[in-house]
Amino acid sequence: MKHFKLKIILTLLAIAVVSACATLLFSNHNIALGILISFIIPVLILINQSLLSKLINSMSSFVRGLEMNDTSMRFEADTNDTELNEMSKSMNRITSMYIGNKRELETRKLYYDRILKVMTHEMRNAIAPIVALSTDLHENPGNYGETERTEAMEIIRNQSEGIKRFLDSYHALTHLPPPEQKQVDAAGFLHKLQKSISCVEETIFSHQGIVEYNIGAGTNLFIDESLMSQVMVNLIKNSLEAAMDNPEPKVIVTATRSAGGSIITITDNGKGLPQEIAENPFQPFLTTKKNGSGIGLFLSRQIVRMHGGDIRMHNLPGKGLSIQIILPTQ
């Protein structure tokens, strides 16, 4: 007998039948047999209680685990019981979802704490010279001739523009639209990008042909073309800039199908990520570029995750960097 509910129903039915039989025997003055039959009732009640206790104890342990934030908790069930096994799988799926959501919340908090810390540091550094110069201009105007005033205003303007660029970057991080995903042919999607990529190539190398495309036959992508184009242009631009260090620069873009969806791989033959970036490549506002905002990789991963996918990096110091964009099917 495999079904938990059937076991409960049958034991209750057996209790009812035995009770009726005992009552009938007592009413027919068959006392001895009635007493003998009555002894079966407590046994049946104990069996029923044992079945219920097993379920209640498992569920109580599971709920206590949730309450105590025990991420190793599992709902255990009798492997011979079909219904309890189904319940076990459902409860364990709830556990996995709980753990995943908890980890996601912790990750978001960590990133936003870092963003806030970086923002505070950068804003203080950018505002300090503005405050100092404007205060001195106000309090000691006689110390500034026309040339000095022009230089001071230029510094204030540059610092103000830097603050605006910084705030624009933060706005880009926090105001991403939800993706409007649809099935897209990978070859067609990358073909549309080639013009934009070619412009980037000419800006960096003054010629084209650095980027090579390899697209698997029948590869489809379930994406928002506009948002994913932003990701691709940003990542390929980074790879092109990294490949500048190689006398024979090359960036290879590959799109293939996978068991769970599709994978886009961008590989360059540069020097790989520097150690300070490689330790946490997706930390926002961290960059080694002179005029970089430090949000490109973070923003790209946010967009890919909004698609239900993720970005993985394989850093080979001195040999290059391989970036995998993993996208699920519809």
Walk me through this protein's architecture.
By secondary structure, this protein is α+β, with helices and mostly antiparallel strands. Helices cover 61% and strands 14% of the residues. It has 9 helices and 7 strands, in the order αααααβαββαββααββ. The strands form 2 sheets. A 5-stranded mixed sheet has the order 2-4-5-7-6, covered by helices on one side. α1 (4-27) runs antiparallel to α2, α4 runs antiparallel to α5 (146-174) and α7 (225-243) packs antiparallel against α9. The protein is elongated. The model has no long low-confidence stretch (mean pLDDT 78).
Characteristics:
330 residues; alpha+beta; five-stranded mixed β-sheet; two-stranded antiparallel ribbon
Spell out the blueprint of helices and strands.
Layout (H helix, E strand, L loop, with lengths): L3 H24 L3 H8 L1 H28 L14 H58 L6 H29 L7 E4 H20 L5 E5 L4 E4 L1 H19 L7 E8 L2 E8 L6 H4 L17 H11 L3 E7 L3 E9 L2
Parallel strand pairs: 2-4
Antiparallel strand pairs: 1-3, 4-5, 5-7, 6-7
Helix pairs in contact: 1-2, 1-3, 4-5, 6-7, 7-9
Describe the structure in brief.
This protein is α+β, with helices and mostly antiparallel strands. The chain contains nine helices and seven strands. The strands form two sheets. A five-stranded mixed beta sheet has the order 2-4-5-7-6, with helices on one face.
- Helix and strand element order: HHHHHEHEEHEEHHEE
Estimate the strand proportion: 5-15%
Widest β-sheet, arrangement of strands: 2-4-5-7-6
pLDDT < 50 stretches: none
Helical proportion, percent range: 55-70%
